[in-house]
Each structure stands twice: as C-alpha cells, then as structure tokens.
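User: Could you check the structure of this?
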Amino acid sequence: MAHKVRYKFNGVAKEISFSYSRHQNMHEAVADAEGVDLSHFLQTEQQIAAISKGKATVRNFRDAEFIKMGFTELYFLKNGQE
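Assistant: Sure, the predicted structure tokens are below.
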C-alpha cells in the first residue's frame, strides 16, 4: 500500500509518496526528495541511540535536527486524506 507524507521544506508545503521498501522512515524519505545528505546526521543519531536510555532522546534529536535543516510539519497522510 502506498503512503503519502506531507511536510514543509523552507516554508513550502510539499507532499511525496512513501514506501518502506525505499526508506526506513519518513525523515529519510523527505531528505531524499529534497536532496539533503544525511550521512553525518545518521552517524550522530546512531551514537546518540547507543548511549541514550530511551527512544525519546533519539526522537527529540531527530526532530530538532530536521527543523534546523528546514523541515517542519512532517506527518503521514491517512488513507483517503487529501
């Protein structure tokens, strides 16, 4: 089943198709769609995951970094929602 992700990049609203066969999560999908290199981000995220006690720390890091990159209002669209 095809999913869609809606987001804003540098203030411009956008929508893309999303598939788990191509990306691990919607953050990687939107970065790929905008041509953003995540190699350094992913390394740092792995380091934080290795030393943190919970998922919230990694999630907060990811959200804060994506805002710095220019991504906001990132969410999956429900089936049939336009």
